[in-house]
Fold this protein.
Amino acid sequence: MKRREFMALLGAAASWPFAARALQSAMPRIAVLLIAGPELMGPYREALRDLGYVEGKNILIEVRSAEGQVNRLPELASDIARGKVDIIVASQAPAITAAKSATSDIPIVMAPGGDPVALGFIASLARPGGNITGVSTLTAELAAKSLELIPEFLPTARHLGFLGNANDPFVKPLLEQVMRSAPALRLEIRPTLVRSGDDLESAFAAMARERADAVVVQPSLPVKLTADLALKYRLPSLCAAVSAVPAGHLLAYNASSAERGRQIAGYVDQLLKGAKPADLPVQQPTKFQIAINLATAKALGLEIAPTLLARADEVIE
């Protein structure tokens, strides 16, 4: 088969059912289960290449996304499990929950955004047990920490909206951390939980009517839509997803996505070489990053303090 024909065939394979694709190759097959975008994953594909894994040559990566519809995740996870992939990589709590329910045999590498022990995914960080291991991204703690940055672009802020995903079990620890940090910064938190993208417009309109100074957005909500609505209603938005900043959110503070990508790739490598997920300790981040969208700041009439800009790892002009 000519290279051009092979590449066309490989591209078309993305739409094949898992069961059919299982016959195409003896290559290791990695299924990636997402709510929507690849946030919390980091550049894992590049990290896998650095470890010698080349897609289409010695590994296959099949991405399954719920496209923002959390209720689709159980079906997608069941489809993946029936396809007998070698490893499932799942990003954010609803996707991990669906994968965990679908299989107790296939190794799962997780990036939950919260405490995986508290969320019930593993027994302990040191010895996860079961078929799940991966990274703990400390998103709840870092989202709370990001509140400390607000005075550097909005020193008069007192009322902060919180927009949470009611379908995501991580909403509870995330909100708790934000509420716990707010009093020391003289901030009042007013939470709003939504169950679908259809609820977002009215949620932002309500926060604007209540004169919120800014809003914290849970990263499992649709990133682009929430960014557009935050700008429409002139609400500076903080989101723990670093990828939310290029999409239009004002600011994000989270663990280093590059480090996370390397960690996820490292787990895939060890599992493919025969390691058991129960024996691989869960890793926590050691590096952190700040991302700022200056175009959004300008559109909102905000001036970012030079001290904050100097600390930023990524600035979108």
